[in-house]
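Why should sequence recovery work at all? Because a backbone constrains its sequence more than one might expect. Tight turns favour small or flexible residues, buried strands favour hydrophobic ones, and helices have their own preferences. The token representation captures these environments compactly. In the example below, the structure is given first.
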């Protein structure tokens, strides 16, 4: 079972924030159509608005017709957001580990307000999963003492299909078509969406994401 004491103590975000000028959630604005898709990006172009970063120890950016999050720093989690603002969303992406230890985490973010306030719905290549909230810089599992295990999570470098539902108080993680966990929390009501990855005790992790879609629940 994964320990929680080290998982999210060193998140910095690498400056991966975006300025938001919206005063209303985008899915409530009058110019948004009734189409179910609010935003989508197959990462084939670099104009999707995602925050990027590159230095000697970490990278986040468009790569291999996807979006890559990679770092060599141990006990480190980081993310990228496209600079949007929503209330209720169903997020879909596909992700695969390219390199690094099995004891990792990766998934989707919703209701991201700044590096100190967001939800993260994540899995690991070792089969563990959980839903976290970052509030005032403190990252905690919601309604669980530790991450749970599911054999439905594809191990190693296999592709996993991840859905994250953020609707009202409900936060739901669905992986490879199977609902793994549902929790309730009222801390955050609106915000950006995004991608997150990280490692624990062992350094090095590279996760490639493909096809990011935000839809109305």
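From this structural description, the recovered sequence reads:
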């Amino acid at each position: 079972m994964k320990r929680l004491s080290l998982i999210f103590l060193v998140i910095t975000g690498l400056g991966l924030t975006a300025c938001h000028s919206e005063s209303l959630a985008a899915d409530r604005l009058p110019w948004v159509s009734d189409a179910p898709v609010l935003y989508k990006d197959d990462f084939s172009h670099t104009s999707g608005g995602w925050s990027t970063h590159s230095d000697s120890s970490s990278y986040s950016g468009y790569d291999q017709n996807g979006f890559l999050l990679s770092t060599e720093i141990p006990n480190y989690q980081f993310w990228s957001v496209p600079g949007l603002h929503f209330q209720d969303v169903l997020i879909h992406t596909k992700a695969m580990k390219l390199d690094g230890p099995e004891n990792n985490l990766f998934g989707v973010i919703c209701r991201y307000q700044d590096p100190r306030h967001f939800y993260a719905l994540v899995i690991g290549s070792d089969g563990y999963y959980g839903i976290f909230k970052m509030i005032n810089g403190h990252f905690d599992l919601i309604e669980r003492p530790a991450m749970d295990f599911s054999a439905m999570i594809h191990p190693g470098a296999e592709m996993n299909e991840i859905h994250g539902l953020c609707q009202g108080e409900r936060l739901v993680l669905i992986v490879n078509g199977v609902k793994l966990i549902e929790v309730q929390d009222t801390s955050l009501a609106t915000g950006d969406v995004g991608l997150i990855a990280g490692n624990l005790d062992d350094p090095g992790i590279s996760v490639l994401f493909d096809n990011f879609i935000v839809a109305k629940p």
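A few observations help interpret the result. Residues 3-33 have pLDDT under 50 and may be disordered.
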